Amino acid sequence: MPSFFSNKKLIVLLTSLIVLIALISYSLKEGTRATWIEQFVQDVVGGFQYVVNVPARYAAGFFQNVNDIENAYKENKRLKENLANYASVEQENRDLTSQNKELKAQLDLKNDPSLSDYTKYSATLIGRSYDQWNQLLTLDKGKVNGIKNGMPVITSGKRLIGRISKVGNFTSKVSLISNDQNVNQISAMIHPKNGGAIFGMIEGYDQNKGTLLFGKIPIKAKVKKGQEVTTSGLSGKYSQGLVIGTVTSVSTDQYGLTKTAQVKPAADLDHLNYVLVIDKKTQVSFDGGKGN
Amino acid sequence: MKQSKIFILLFLLFLIQGTVMPLFPFNRVGTNIQIVPEFVFIVLLMLTFFGSPNWGLKYAVLFGFLTDIVYASVLGVYAFCLTLTVYLVYAISKWVNMNIAMTVLLTVAGVCMLEFGVYVVYLMIGVTDQQFDLFLQFRLLPTICLNAVFTMLIYYPFRRFFEKLSDGIGK
């Protein structure tokens, strides 16, 4: 009768367990850069992914179109209602822009780019982790195109979806904000209509509810359902004013010292096709913040 | 030549898992439901059943590492779990009479073992914090359904293909 594990097989198993643990501890080390082997494999596979992805997107686009036609009528109705406000908002915007320019000129800030200035690189999604524990995307742009580690990634409407976690020469990987591992420490804020900004940190992601945890909010702050959460740009990693999501519920944290809000991501993280990688023009100097 | 045929087949499925499957709307049914395609794993199992177990294990290591590098953030987890599961299921398959029902049963058992193995490791190192009952309900069940259907679809053509191949190379 053949046994499940003979002596030799046991040794192989134990050796591979040791190798496994070594590899895990290596890749969990903070701020690890992709080794050349990883970069090479990622780039080669990326090339094939690109080829497979083009026809697949066309096919999937067809389903999307059918869906869109169904929704078009409802959307049209809603948009017409919104359009009534458009003219007044535009006028207001123009006034504010000119006013802002004047004030900046007075303050001599003209050549000093603000925190919200950035350059954009557009990229196409060519792959995505199929097990939904790793929330990673593969993009078709890499070092050659100017992508660097740690750059924020957004979709249309400045909605934040994640940041670059590993760069190859021709491809790069994005770690989504829904990724449990490195979601921590996006400095965020709420700008209420009246009163000052409320600052806090995005600290985690709840996979079951599909919401981000917006923690470290001062206990006295008036956070309400429906308020918009944006990046504050204070940490120097994300530009200012990228939309993270809207508050869905607020609770006091377990020690009763701060508040925690549930934030529904503004971007639809499940259906992404084209994204923008942004690079800040001003590089705020920070040396200590390695990795996350 | 025959080696490369198998490799191309597996690599194509590997690409489909990551690029084609996330595009299609079948995971839009509910926000919680996670359907994971494990096509490469299923074909690897069929290769060990009907073709050459030796190659099956080698390709398991190779595609495990590819998955780790391309689709995961932590190296080694898939390589280890995939190879171990393929080996264990192969060991069981030696004692049973292979037909379509048995193959589907064994692949389903294999998918459970693989998902569970990866889940335990990921839970320990903090890649996921999914609760166990949610894992069973929203992830394992739909995943099993998809992969069982896939196994039934590919059973006859792939069995013929692998048996023809194994005649040439010997076990």
UniProtKB/TrEMBL annotation, chain A:
UniProt entry keywords in alphabetical sequence: Cell shape, Coiled coil
Xref: InterPro entries: Cell/Rod_1, Cell/Rod_MreC_2, MreC, MreC_beta-barrel_core
Domain Rod shape-determining protein MreC beta-barrel core: 126-278
One Pfam family, short name: MreC
Signal peptide: none
Coiled coil: 69-106
Function field: Involved in formation and maintenance of cell shape.
Family membership: Belongs to the MreC family.
Protein name (record): Cell shape-determining protein MreC
Species: Sporolactobacillus shoreicorticis
Gene that encodes the chain: mreC
From TrEMBL, chain B:
Lineage: Bacteria, Bacillati, Bacillota, Bacilli, Bacillales
Top-level taxon: Bacteria
Predominant subcellular localization, coarse grouping: membrane
InterPro entries: Cell_shape_determining_MreD
Source species: Sporolactobacillus shoreicorticis
Localization in the cell: Cell membrane
Protein family according to the UniProt entry: Belongs to the MreD family.
Listed name of the protein: Rod shape-determining protein MreD
The UniProt record lists the keyword RNA-binding: no
Transmembrane annotation, as ranges: 6-27, 39-57, 69-92, 104-125, 137-156
Membrane topology: Multi-pass membrane protein
Record keyword Membrane present: yes
Keyword annotations of the record: Cell membrane, Cell shape, Membrane, Transmembrane, Transmembrane helix
